[in-house]
Each structure stands twice: as structure tokens, then as C-alpha cells.
């Protein structure tokens, strides 16, 4: 018996070590691709395999980054865009979750609104930008509204579908113990939907950035979206690429924060 347990423990340790090694190799290849990408970009630009005016180079983008940091202008643009994106992301997620809960709470209302949700989801929300600017004014409010609207409908649909997908046996058991609708939602429906909510958060990270950048394209006089438009207008494509790289970096940070939240929620849920 003890020999079998030792053998099982040994196999478990080998499996854990294998996973650990696999993660190291994955990370190694990811770093290699990252370095190779910038090396090829720099080399192609220096040897004019690509047009250095249009595609710039990592060294020029880096020099521009240092200039922008020294004159302090970068932090102003960065803070503006990141704030808008976080607010739009939170509002889109919270409102979408709230609407999904209301639809779950009222099956009649969900049947009435179902076709309208499909129509709104199919509509390109970016096209609402000019209307929002006229309605809310050319400022922070209209940009945050863009970041919110672009994610709220899809959030509502996905999370409502997750709510409806709750195992009916859980609900029947709680109804047997005379749980009311709020208790069923709090103790069964919501916890079982955490994986879908987290997946929606990950999608909303990208959508919020898209909404805010498009809003800044249309109306803003600062922010990373404004830097892209300004760089295009003056043919400073190093500025455009610097803005795109910063968007990629901060979108990745937001995504990783959501991934950390996912680990915590799933862990807590299992506990």
C-alpha cells in the first residue's frame, strides 16, 4: 500500500515538473519571438527593406519615447486615455451585468427585449460616435460613453446566456429548501457564471480600448488616439507606432489583471 502511494506521489511530482518545464519553454519562445520581431523590424528599417518613413524603427520609437517622457507630455496623454478606458470598461461591464440580471429576473422582459438585443449587437457601435458627440458634447463624457456602449450589449448577451445556463438541478434543490429568487441568484446563478463573466471581462478589455481610441479620433485634443491622428497628419509615424505600442502594453496589463482576478475567483469558488 505504502509502495503504491510512493509511486503515485512520484508520478505526481514528475507531472508537476513536466508542467513547470513546459511553462519555461513557452515563456522562452515568447521572449524569443518578441526579440526577433524588434530585431527584424530594426534591421529592415536600417537597410530600407521597408520604408523607414512609414514604418519607422524601434530605435526611433525609443528615442521619441524618451523625448516625450522628458518633456512630460506623454504622461498627460497616457493618463487621459487609461482613465477613460478603465471607466468605460467598468461601466460597460457593470451595466451589462446589471441588465443581464434584470433579464434573468424577468423572463417576460427577456422575451420582449431579445430581438432588440440582437439588433443592437449587430449594429456597428462605432457609427454612434458622431451622435454621442452631438448629444453629450465633444469631451470626456462622449469618449467614455463610446467605451461603454461598445461593450455593454455583448456583455449583457453573454452573461445573460451564462445565467440561463445554470444547472437547473441546483435551482431545484434551492427551491426545495424554499430559497427565494434573490438567494437562488446569489448562491447558485451568479457563482456558476463566474467563468463566463471573466471571459467577458477579457473581451471587454479590447473593446473598451477600441471605443476610447475611436472616440479620441473623433473629438479629443489629447490622449493616445489623438497622438495617432496627430502623427498621421504631420507624417510622424514614429509617434503613431509609439502610441500603438503603448496601447498594446497597457491593454496587456489590463488583461493580466483580469487573469489574476480569474485565478482568485475560480480558486475562491472551488474553496
Automatic annotation (TrEMBL):
The chain crosses the membrane at residues 25-41, 86-105, 117-137, 143-163, 207-229, 235-261. PROSITE patterns: ABC_TM1. GO terms for biological process: transmembrane transport. It holds the Pfam family BPD_transp_1. Its main location: membrane. Keywords: Cell membrane, Membrane, Transmembrane, Transmembrane helix, Transport. InterPro entries: MetI-like (IPR000515), MetI-like_sf (IPR035906). It is found in: Cell membrane. GO terms for cellular component: plasma membrane. Residues 74-258 form the ABC transmembrane type-1 domain. It comes from the Bacteria. It is a multi-pass membrane protein. Belongs to the binding-protein-dependent transport system permease family. PANTHER family: ABC TRANSPORTER PERMEASE, ALKANE SULFONATE ABC TRANSPORTER-RELATED, MEMBRANE SUBUNIT. This is NitT/TauT family transport system permease protein.
Amino acid at each position: 500500500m505504502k509502495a503504491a502511494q510512493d509511486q503515485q506521489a512520484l508520478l505526481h511530482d514528475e507531472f508537476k515538473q513536466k508542467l513547470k518545464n513546459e511553462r519555461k519553454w513557452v515563456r522562452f519562445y515568447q521572449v524569443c519571438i518578441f526579440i526577433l520581431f524588434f530585431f527584424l523590424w530594426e534591421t529592415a528599417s536600417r537597410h530600407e527593406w521597408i520604408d523607414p518613413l512609414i514604418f519607422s524603427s524601434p530605435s526611433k520609437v525609443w528615442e521619441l519615447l524618451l523625448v516625450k517622457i522628458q518633456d512630460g507630455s506623454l504622461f498627460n496623454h497616457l493618463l487621459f486615455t487609461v482613465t477613460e478606458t478603465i471607466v468605460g470598461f467598468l461601466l460597460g461591464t457593470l451595466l451589462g451585468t446589471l441588465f443581464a440580471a434584470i433579464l434573468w429576473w424577468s423572463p417576460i422582459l427577456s422575451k420582449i427585449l431579445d430581438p432588440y438585443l440582437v439588433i443592437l449587437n449587430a449594429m456597428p457601435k462605432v457609427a454612434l460616435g458622431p451622435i454621442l458627440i452631438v448629444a453629450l458634447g465633444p469631451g470626456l463624457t462622449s469618449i467614455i460613453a463610446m467605451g461603454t456602449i461598445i461593450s455593454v450589449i455583448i456583455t449583457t448577451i453573454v452573461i445573460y446566456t451564462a445565467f440561463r445556463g445554470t444547472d437547473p438541478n441546483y435551482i431545484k434543490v434551492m427551491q426545495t429548501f424554499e430559497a427565494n429568487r434573490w438567494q437562488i441568484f446569489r448562491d447558485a446563478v451568479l457563482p456558476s457564471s463566474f467563468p463566463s463573466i471573466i471571459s467577458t471581462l477579457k473581451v471587454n478589455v479590447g473593446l473598451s480600448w477600441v471605443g476610447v481610441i475611436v472616440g479620441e479620433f473623433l473629438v479629443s485634443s489629447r490622449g493616445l488616439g489623438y497622438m495617432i491622428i496627430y502623427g498621421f497628419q504631420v507624417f510622424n509615424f514614429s509617434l503613431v507606432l509609439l502610441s500603438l505600442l503603448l496601447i498594446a502594453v497597457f491593454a496587456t496589463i489590463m488583461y493580466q489583471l483580469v487573469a489574476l482576478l480569474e485565478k482568485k475567483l475560480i480558486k475562491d469558488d472551488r474553496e
